[in-house]
Write a structure and sequence with these properties.
3 domains, Arc Repressor Mutant, subunit A, 12% strand, 3-stranded mixed beta sheet, 3-stranded antiparallel beta sheet, 292 residues, alpha+beta, 42% helix
Length: 292
């Protein structure tokens, strides 16, 4: 089977059979749940957005593609058509399939994903202020443990990654639910993807618009102060001091805002950090007077 047979022609509209074939025959064989998959499929440029990541895949030198596909074949097994990814045309088909999958499956939930990532960034920024550089690698999750000067990680294989003066790029991942992930090639700039700690959230059924009670209770000076306080990231105690209320009252206001989808709350050690969700940020912008 050729790569063209696996991916077929990209449709101009959502096509579930096409997406199923693409996922089963094209995407999953290249990224198996194993100790290795090709590094060029997860370029560092991806932190700049989907377009930058796909462009980096297209720009990968053919010799590197062949080397990494060969390693995949030796370790986990690669599809017969995988060496053809060294051809620019075949990589273009691959990136088209990746974009289709993103637009169909991931993009509809991008607001929730981005809000969770921004909450994690705020948490890490506060950890640096409180504990210095070491604070950013503490409490990264159950699969990671900091013991100066080594960051220990649960990993599918026993290996050491020495920074040798290089920095380490930490990338919180919404979809990395298991072990952390790093490059197979130790000569590349060190990158570590780690899983966000997902907390239970209330699910609204499609078509259920609710009673409107959650939004009705948002009216009032105290709750508006709490919402503004979350704009820069604040703990429950800090919100209480800003609004001039007790910690329990601030917690109740934060719960109402969270239930309305305006803020995101994330537990960090003994405190809870509250940050804006995209809807909350839009509400604040809409109520900010424009400069004359």
């Amino acid at each position: 089977m050729s790569l063209a047979d696996a991916s077929m022609t990209r449709p101009r509209f959502f096509d579930l059979p096409y997406l199923t074939r693409t996922l089963r025959n094209l995407l999953l064989p290249l990224v198996p749940r194993a100790a290795y998959f090709p590094d060029f499929l997860t370029p560092p440029e991806g932190v700049q957005g989907l377009d930058a990541g796909l462009e980096a895949i297209l720009a990968t030198p053919p010799h590197r593609v062949l080397d990494e596909v060969g390693q995949l074949a030796r370790t986990s097994g690669a599809p017969a058509w995988a060496p053809r990814l060294a051809e620019a045309k075949m990589r273009k088909e691959l990136t088209d399939a990746m974009r289709t999958y993103h637009d169909t499956v991931i993009a509809p939930h991008s607001d929730r994903i981005q809000a969770r990532i921004e909450a994690e960034r705020a948490t890490r920024a506060r950890a640096v202020l409180d504990a210095g550089a070491a604070g950013i690698v503490q409490n990264l999750g159950p699969g990671l443990r900091w013991r100066h000067p080594v960051l220990h990680a649960v990993y599918p294989e026993d290996r050491d990654l020495c920074l040798n003066g290089r920095g380490l790029l930490l990338v919180p991942s919404y979809f990395c639910w298991g072990n952390p992930v790093t490059f197979g090639d130790t000569t590349l700039d060190p990158v570590l993807l780690y899983s966000l700690r997902h907390e239970p959230h209330r699910t609204t059924l499609p078509g259920d618009l609710g009673s409107g009670a959650s939004l009705a209770v948002l009216l009032g000076r105290t709750r508006a102060t709490v919402l503004r306080g979350a704009a820069t990231g604040a703990t429950t105690g800090e919100l209480a001091r800003a609004a001039g209320v007790s910690a329990s009252s601030a917690s109740q206001h934060a719960t109402a805002l969270r239930d309305a989808g305006l803020i995101v709350s994330h537990r960090q050690a003994s405190s809870v950090l509250h940050t804006l969700a995209p809807l909350g940020a839009a509400l604040l912008r809409a109520n900010t007077p424009a400069p004359r």
